[in-house]
Specification:
111 residues, alpha+beta, TolA/TonB C-terminal domain, 5 helices, 31% helix, elongated
């Protein structure tokens, strides 16, 4: 991953997402129609690498439910659109780091 373990032990700020709610809502809107008809739900756990400028440079799915049809496009959306305040090292300088998150794909009850 190219991360500095010593820097992470002493960093003063982890990466902070700036547009996570908007991005999560956008990813959820792409719920596959076939999965929705079958009532399929799923969980996605991923890790994003965040560079010194606050840009997500890579995404790895660390765990996912068996319903991969639902979760396949989330990493693509996050690496293209996620914005972060970067992590800060002990001297207050931006540093490479990672951000771990989960998205729960759930069907909304019909009203």
């Amino acid at each position: 991953m190219g991360l500095d373990p010593d820097g992470h032990r002493t960093m003063i700020q982890q990466p902070e997402p700036l547009n996570f709610a908007t991005l999560s809502a956008r990813v959820s809107r792409f719920y596959p129609a076939a999965a929705a008809r079958r009532g399929e739900q799923g969980d996605l756990h991923m890790r994003l690498l965040v560079d010194e400028a606050g840009t997500a440079t890579d995404c790895t799915v660390t765990a996912a439910s068996q319903v991969s049809r639902i979760t396949t496009n989330a990493c693509e959306h996050f690496t293209q659109e996620a914005l972060f305040l970067p992590a800060l090292d002990a001297a207050g300088r931006p540093m490479k780091s990672f951000y771990a998150t989960s998205i729960l794909f759930r069907m909304q009850p019909r009203r």
